[in-house]
Amino acid sequence: MGWAFVGPFMGVFLLVFVAPVLYAFYLSLFQNQMVGGDKFVGGANYLQALADPQFWDSVIRVVVFLVVQVPIMLFLALFAALALDSGRLRASSFFRISVFLPYAVPAVVATLMWGFIYGPRFGLFGSINDFFGLNLAEPLSSSWILASIGNINTWEFTGYNMLIFYSALKVIPAELYEAANLDGAGTFRVIRSIKLPSIRGAIGIASIFSVIGSFQLFNEPNILKALAPNSISSYFTPNMYAFNLSFAGQQFNYAAAISIIMGVLTVIVAYVVQLSGSRKDA
Amino acid sequence: MSVRLSPAHSSDTSPTTFPEVKTRRSPAPRLNSQRRGVTRKRSSILLTILMGVMAVYALLPLFWLLVNSTKTQTSLFSSFGLWFSGDFALWDNIVGTLTYNDGEFLRWLANTVLYVVVGAGGATFLATLAGYGLAKFDFPGKRGVFAVVLGAVAIPGTALAVPTFLMFSQMGLTNTPWSVIIPSLISPFGLYLVWIYALESVPTEVLEAARMDGAGEFRTFFTISLRMLAPGFITVLLFTVVATWNNYFLPLIMLSQSTWYPLTVGLNSWNAQATTAGGEAIYNLVITGSFLTIVPIVGAFLFLQRFWQSGLSAGSVK
Amino acid sequence: MKNNHRFRRVATAALAASLLVGGLAACSGSGTPASAGAEGASAEDIAKALDTETTLTVWGWAPQLEPIVKAFEAKYPKVHVNLENVGTGNAHYTKLQNAVKAGSGAPDVAQIEYNALPQFALSEALVDLKEFGAEELKDNYTESTWGSVNLNGGVYALPQDSGPMAMFYRADVFEKHGISVPTTWDEYVEAGKKLHTADPKAYITSDTGDAGFTTSMIWQAGGKPYTLDGSTKVAVDLQDEGARKWTGTWNQLLKNDLLSPVTSWSDEWYKGLSDGSIATLIIGAWMPANLESGAAGASGQWRVAPMPTYEKGAAATAENGGGGDAVLKQSKNKAAAYGFLQFANGPEGAKIHAANGGFPSTKADLESESFLNAENAYFGGQKINEVLVQASKDVVPGWSYLPFQTYANSIYSDTVGQAYGSKGDLNDGLKAWQDATAKYGQQQGFTVTTK
């Protein structure tokens, strides 16, 4: 009976996810040449990917991104959620909506807006530089570009994560607070002993989705590339590498191998994050 | 729900206070949100300032968008980005956006609405059905289902794009609205949300009672369970609406006729116009168009926001 | 039991549905009508095709295509044309390549720039227009544009526009700082130094690296980085004499900080063109229309002069951009499609094209009195076409692009772009580009030689 309910979802899922993944795997076992056509090569694409410096460059980059941006973003989201939950904030509805609003903005538009602000000559940074006679770092230069993209990402998703945490905080039974009140526990003690432990699950889920999102980073660097072509290479992130291999180089097979490797890597890392989270519980 | 007269754990030695004895007869746990009446906290200036900084950070680019929607193409280039220029051309820009190229913006708007209604609506329906099924029924392969779905989310979208494109093109689906709608029907996060919510808020006793009355499972679902699932359902709807409204990558690959573009892809093509030999730069329309694209979603948020809280709260219990 | 039964019913229904969809799709996909079978057609066949109820799909981004299509439909009312802008440049080529690879979904006619044409011709996606009598049209077009469509003995497109390079400059900025119009590259570098010293916010030109620009500049300097031998042998040499001449000049501009760091075709670039902080543009003859719409604020300030040269008095230019239109092999209406090309890329279309800001590739239009004498208000009344037509005559002959040029261009910023970014030596960047391009060629089965 359960299958009757789950069936429709799984049916479309098979068509939209499973079939393409299987097809991608099939593609990854071949090579196609402009001169020569298709030929079966087995695992050659995978071996090539594992030895490809551009591939590893992109992987290391998203790992660095993940390690820095995800904690910052989740910390900000947690801070905002706790602030909203504390009951000590004026106009909390306004703050809740403003912080969540960026999530509603399409990535195309968000990158457009931030691209302007980052503009070295006429953007906000440029204007500030001129006005104050400073020489602030250029957000679109190679040394700062990853941080700039991290900023756009943080801007886009902090509100979303904040909402997850906030909702989790709202479910905490009031008895716990009363007990703490009786004990005379202060705000920070309450946070440490009650709030944070209670929303551990939400933090875990948000972390996993953020990790997966970081590994799949694509929209922002891809759109920003037109503005900063020398700072963002065609292999800036694994997804961009696969995308450009497919569409600029028509190397669908190699791109498929890269994507499958990335998928496996992501699953492993997400699993590890999940495990380490639940181990803390035990 | 019984009343606690003594604290659950007292690790602090602090002056004892007589606990307030309260009796409440609600079956559900008393949520944090309902304790407002108990104590009044002083609002913290520091906290307000810090959140204010965050709000400014969140709203600044949107403010830029609003301000620059009022500028003409030439004054875009000659005025300071964060403040208005001399001329207020918002109305002209809006008219320009809606009428450019025989009103293709309106066509794109209609397309996006179609994709959202069918895509997000369909996704919510499928996720709700499946989440309910996972929560309330036991069947072989149940554990596998969620693992596989979560695993699939980890596969990069670009990996799926090309094979999906090749598959769809053999099925004759590319360049049709189906190529956009079908992939958007799967929301793994939605599935998870409804699953969790259903576990919490649809008591099995009610289902048992309905079964004993002889009602079929689907009938029970539609007449009883769905109402109980409403907040979770609405939350999934909100998230899928945002996702389909903002859908960009896959439509970009699947569609080659601008008549079927959603707003995101359409705006991008307008932006790219400036980069063509002899092309007409229409930055003011791109900016105004972006502004107009965001307004409906903001409206949807404000309208549905009361469902946020209750919907997501259950999803975060686990 | 009840559960299993219902499940089986649902499953069979789902299976049946998917089979039905698959079957329908297969039906609609196959079935080639007899008319699509034979290649080539006579003039009568083409005329007949244009007199039959047909729908043609044309993919292109050039703004002049719209008025051309309208005029075509007016002349041939039975033929309806769906003009689609599926993207610019690489975005458009990606869609085209995808459709070719998928075996369906390609248009009847596609706009293809000269630098991308070899790629599509080689992958046998395009119809050889010789079979429709295109060979007779050779003398209508300039040598360089015909050379760009006449590949390996076949004619794979009809030229639409051309982009002989010239120097567009801000007369007001030059006058303000007492700079005379440079005629050689040495003079150009000197002008750049003088300008930037006088006004640190102004630059002689902007350049953050552009594949098309680089190849055109090497072209003007006499370099021949890409040579084709047959259809499988390719030579890539981005360090020959011509390349070195270009880097000799350009390195000076780069190292001395004389290039504006604004990326071309961005909104900041348009701003720079409007406010005078970008003083010259070395670019194709199609630029006036873009200046008029994107930098309207600078109307009356821009002028055109011939491109600076390496030797005083030795006029030389190159083509930058420009393209034509081709017929796809997937088309089911090849005769009608060719009929469209005859119109669009023939004298009638060329007139409409020129009237809408396009720069022609047809000799007749380039040499017409009215064209040469036209005074352009945006350029302060200058007869810009005199300069531009002369430029088209001075194009250095013998250039070719790679059969995988779009890929090579896509990795330009990974290689040469890095030299721009770090203000290093462009020769190193070119070498990196050469190596990466050669590697790709070998992976694709070509025999690649490099120096």
From TrEMBL, chain B:
The chain crosses the membrane at residues 45-67, 113-134, 146-168, 180-199, 220-245, 281-304. It holds the Pfam family BPD_transp_1. Its main location: membrane. It comes from the Bacteria. Residues 1-36 are annotated as: Disordered. Residues 109-304 form the ABC transmembrane type-1 domain. This is Multiple sugar transport system permease protein. The keyword Hydrolase does not apply. Keywords: Cell membrane, Membrane, Sugar transport, Transmembrane, Transmembrane helix, Transport. The lineage of its organism: Bacteria, Bacillati, Actinomycetota, Actinomycetes, Micrococcales. It is found in: Cell membrane. It is a multi-pass membrane protein. Residues 8-17 have a biased composition (Polar residues). Belongs to the binding-protein-dependent transport system permease family. InterPro entries: MetI-like, MetI-like_sf.
